[in-house]
Each structure stands twice: as C-alpha cells, then as structure tokens.
Amino acid sequence: MAMRLAVVVLCFFSVAASVTRTNVARLPGFDGALPSRLQTGYVTVDEENGAELFYYFIESEGDPGSDPVLLWITGGDRCSVLSALFFEIGEQPTTRFTGETFRILTICFPSGPLKLVVEPYNGNLPRLRYHPYTWTKVANLLFVDSPVGAGFSFSRDPSGYDVGDVSASLQLVKFLSEWFKEHPDHLSNPFYVGGDSYGGKIIPFVAQKISEDIEAGIRPTLNFKGYLVGNPGTGDSIDFDSKVSYAHGVGIISDQLYETIMEHCKGEDYANPTNVICAQALTRFNSLLGEGSAAYILGRKCIYVSPRPNYDNIDRRILKDKREVIHHLPPQPSIECKEYSNYLSYFWANNIATREALGIRKGTVNEWVRCHNKDLPYTRDINSSIKYHRNVTLKGYRALAWVRSLNYPIADDWRAWHLDGQSAGFTIAYGNNLTFATVKGGGHTAPEYEPKRCFAMFSRWISDKPL
Predict the structure, then answer these.
(1) What does UniProt give as the signal peptide span (predicted)?
(2) Which of the chain's termini has less CB crowding within 10 Å, N or C?
C-alpha cells in the first residue's frame, strides 16, 4: 500500500491553516473572465494525519448573498468532484426544510458554469465553454473532493487515506463547520447537501449529523434546509435486486427470464446466488444487461474512462504547452461517447497552468485522476443508508426510489411534469413533503443527456415553485 500511496503524495510538510483559499479570476482553456466568482481551497479535516479536503466554491450568478448554497460530493471509488462540476446534472431526490418539515424532490446532479469542448485531442490544452444550464444561475455551488484521496484532496501521512463511509461523512461535517466559520457571510443562506451514486450512502448520514448538531446548538449553526441524492446507492440489497425489475420493465430481458428469476431467486443474494437455476438465470440476465451502457441504456456502449491500478496500456502523452506528463491516462474512447469528456479532463486537470490557477499545493497530489479504483484503503461501514433516510424524513426531510418502503401517504399521485408544453418526466408527491420525480431521456447522470430539463426541475424546486 505504501508504494501505491507514493504515487499520490510527493512529500510531507508542516500542518497549514485549517482553511486556505484561492480566488480564481481566469481558467486555462476559457476565453475571457469567468461567468461568476470562483474560489478554491483546502480545509483540514484530520489534524493528526494532516488530511485536507479540496473544494471549488462557485458563486451564484443571481444574488450570492441570499441564494441557496449547495454542497456536492460525487460518487464512485474516490472520484473527483470535478466530474460533477464539468459533466453532471443527473437525476436525484431532494429535500428542503421550512419550519418543522422538509420539502423533498428527486432532481438532477448539479453542474457548474463551464463545460469541456468535445473535440479530438491534439496535444494542446482542452478548451472550456460556458454552460447555459448551469445551476449557478439560481444557487451557490460548493463542490468537495471527498473522501481524502479523491481529486486534489490529500493527506500528509498515508494513514490519513484510511477512511470509510462513517469517517468520511464525519469529515464532511467538520469541513462544513470550518468552511462556514471562514465564510460567515453565507451562514444565513439556505443550505443543502447533495451527492450522487455511491455518495447516496454518505449524504443521508451527513444530513442526520447536521440536523443533530443544530438540535444540540453546536455552532456555527447552519441554515440547513435539506438534501439531495442522485440515482443513489443505499448499501441495501435493493441496489442490485431492483435491476431485475427495471430491466424487465424496459424490455432488456424477456418475460420468461424475469419469471424464472422471480420464481427461483427468492431469498437468494443476487450478487452471490447459491441456487443453481437462479445462478444460471442471473448469468443470462447480466449478459443481456451488459449489451448496453449501464449508465444510459439508450446510449452507446463505451469503455470505462478511469485508470485501473497498475494499468499497463498507458499512452504517456505530453501537453505541448506545459510539458506535463500523464502517467495514468485511461484508454481513449470514441469521440461519439459521452466518456470522451472524461478523457479530456485528464489533460486539462493535469496541465501545470491549470494547477497553478486552481491553487493546487505543490508536493501534495502528483497527478490528478478521475477516480482511484480501489487503490487506496476504504471501509464500507454503512451497510444501509435507508435508516438514515427514515430518520431524517421523520423529522421532515426526504427520500427517493425506495420511498414506498417508508409507507408515507400519497399527496399528489403520479403525473407528468412539463417543459415547453411537453412532458419532461414524471413525479409523485408523498406525505412529509416528499416528492419523487424523473427526467425523460436521462441516464445515471441525466444532465449530460437532458441539461435543460434538469435545470428546469432544479430551478423550480429551489424556488418553491411546483413542477
């Protein structure tokens, strides 16, 4: 493990201030001034090991002093939040607190004001363009590389990388406390936390801890209004088992295969079946499911754009303008794939001019990678997040696709919601101000496919307007 960590950490140095920041006026690859103020920085979350989380804070293009502040972490195995900032606006549930209750909605992953221009990589720095459906039109966005080891977050002592669901969640709570101490002008802003995919296990736990701190009178007191989770993992068996019903519903598997699984896999662990007939049926199921894109069943099947540990087939390209070597470049996908933007992000994030503009500390992260695929220690110690969803929704918070298991009464039955006179998705509202909604045409990261619809959903919800 020490040899792997050496790739991430170059050297150790004395403990810095709890919060440091850089005001970024311009970014390499983008022509002109940024559309809104960008601040980056580090927050110490583990003094003993010198672990610091890196963040991007993008002010609202509306009224930064009163518009909501949304904290966002992304999912995956230590995936950088830069993926969310540049690429996402997916599909997720949300909550909003007013008085004793939270308003809940399923919405899209947030997106920042800039996107990578998708064009063949020619050795030069990838270009950026303005994103017209950025959520910064209505909210301040606080993106955090979490857990330690994701993106530009780092630890001086390798022991600081040994975290898990619970410890990473508690570090996020500490991050927020320290960040708001340094940004008291935003304490009165409505505040939300959000995450997608595997982050769906973390966010409900963080939301519960924030609410407990508020009840205990711990300062600074956040103006916490709710939380969002996009296509979230729960750690529960429903994460895998629901794939079967979904695949059947959208026509990926036949009625016969569905019926076989339902009959012979009852009580079985779908990931590790012991029943022979069930195992054979699930093998067939996985084969059929694997024919398409797991993130977007209507899209092209493309290669995964993130380097694996000890990846051998490395294209060691060199950026012409700054001579920055990339040692862990993933395989190149077709430019027709959505993943091509992820590929370009390696060249942008590892460019020396980019790192200088973002204020990346020398001697911390040697090379930015989109995700660390299990090459750093991590303990999955939240077996199921559903109880945290239940705890916070009973206080008035929220939930998502498994909302029916909470047994809340239906307040507004399943219906379409509209944009430009057309159905943009479907929604249902439950008691305790819980709303579930979908985005028509969206995938796991729906904003990549339906940014206009996702922005419409979010902007209405955050403004207390009905879908």
Answers:
(1) 1-18
(2) N
Do both 94 and 156 map to the same domain? yes
Residue with tokens 């390798």: 158
**Same domain, yes or no, for 259 and 273?**
yes
Residue 63 lies in a domain: yes
Measured in degrees and rounded to the nearest 5, phi and psi for residue 219 equal -105, 155
Same domain, 252 and 171: no
Neighbour count for residue 286 (Cβ, 10 Å): 12
Let me know if residue 310 belongs to a domain: no
User: What b/e string do you get for 216-244 counting C-beta neighbours within 10 Å, with b at 16 or more?
Assistant: eeeeeebbbbbbbbbbbbbbbeebebebb
Among the listed residues 71, 196, 57, 78, the one whose alpha carbon sits nearest the alpha carbon of residue 148: 78
pTM value is: 0.86
